[in-house]
Amino acid sequence: MEAYPFQLFPEEHFYLFKTRYNVRHAIRFKPSFYVLDADPVIADNVYESIIAQIEKPEGSIPPDEQILYTIAAIAEDFFKKAENIAIYVCDDSDGKGKARKRKFDGWFHYLNFEGRGFIKIDQGFHEADGFSYSASLIFKSENRMKIQIITALDDLAAKYNQPK
Fold first, then answer.
1. What does the pLDDT profile of the chain (164 residues) look like in tens digits?
2. Which Pfam family is one of those matched by this entry (predicted)?
3. Residues in CB range of 75: below 8 A, 6 or more apart
4. CA separation (Å) from 130 to 2, 52, 68, 89?
5. No. of helices (H) and no. of strands (E), the chain
6. Domain ranges, ordered by start, for the chain
């Protein structure tokens, strides 16, 4: 299946697309050098991925598998720079974090991102107040810093998840 056409705004690492049902989506890769306490060679290439529905008509919208292929095409475009690292945080402030993670993991598997040269590392984080969420780091398997990236995520989780 083909992806929807999308617009790229390179300075903001921002993508827009509109579906056949007139639903507009934005995907942004927000520079997030502060997420990993890592060497600037890694930290300067970390981007939080944000997927948002920004406009939709009234009423119900049928499922649209083409969105999935569009997100995949946008990821391929973003990762043309092999050093890029995307972090996807499954926010659970509305109680839907586990559903977001299942959906995201399903997309990654369904689109065979591993077979296309991507690595996904998952990690859970726990707040002192009992709130928890998961995060996934995604990067190209050809990234020459992959061991350091994995180590930086593990170190962050170890610090973050210590008993408070």
1. 899 999 999 988 999 999 999 999 999 999 998 888 778 889 999 999 999 999 999 999 999 999 999 999 999 999 999 899 999 888 777 777 788 888 888 888 888 888 889 999 998 877 766 667 788 899 999 999 999 999 988 888 887 767 65
2. DUF6169
3. 86, 113, 118, 138
4. 42, 26, 32, 17
5. 4, 7
6. 6-160
